Amino acid sequence: MDFRQGKKPVPYRGKWVLPTVLLLGASFTGCGQDSGYQESLINAADNSQGTFSLPRGTGVGAPIPLWDTALIVCPYSDTSLIPEKFAKDVQNLDTTSTDSVQWLLFSEQNNVSRFSIERTAVDFCQGESLPIEYESNRFWSGEKRDGTWSMTPITD
Q1: Number of Cβ atoms within 10 Å of the Cβ of 42
Q2: List of residues 6+ apart from 24 with CB closer than 8 A
Q3: Which of 5, 55, 82, 96 has the most crowded Cβ, counting Cβ within 10 A?
Q4: Which of 86, 38, 88 is nearest to 63 (CA)?
Q5: Which residues are CB-neighbours of 58 under 8 A, at least 6 positions away?
């Protein structure tokens, strides 16, 4: 097999080049997304009898650690007015390049974990544009519409 560089043929010498490139590509595309937490959300909504709490890490292998507050950042959100504890973790989010994901940031004291969740599976951002902070004891309701769980916080 030859790869062309200009007009000169360049012999293909490495049998591991393509698998390595494919493996690296797969690694990078998964960065920032957490299908484990997304699945935990879907399971919580599926198994709820009306309302439920967002999953919190309990036990070995939990998708996230225990957390006190969560910040939901939707596409096109203005991230300039983020609470101090989340500011560093939000500063490099590109909220304008896609509307297919939303970001969930979980804070336990000074530790923040950030995940992106596909909106085609679970959607917290139905028309919302401001980042909103929620306590861990907040209850949610989920409604499945066309295969997507639409999440709504229960107000007091």
Answers
A1: 17
A2: none
A3: 82
A4: 38
A5: 66
What is the rounded end-to-end Cα distance, in angstroms, of the chain? 66
Residue 86 DSSP class: H
Which ranges constitute the DSSP H helices of the chain?
17-29, 35-47, 84-90
* 148 contacts 121 by C-beta, under 8 angstroms: yes
- pLDDT tens digits, one per residue of 42-76: 888 988 878 998 988 765 556 667 889 999 999 98
- Cα atoms in the Cβ-side hemisphere of radius 13 Å centred on 39: 5
Distance CA 32, CA 41 (A): 16
Tell me which residue has tokens 């973790």.
89
Instruction: Give the DSSP per-residue string, 17-49.
Output: HHHHHHHHHHHHHTTTB-HHHHHHHHHHHHH-S
Structural tokens at position 155: 């107000």
The whole-model pTM stands at 0.72
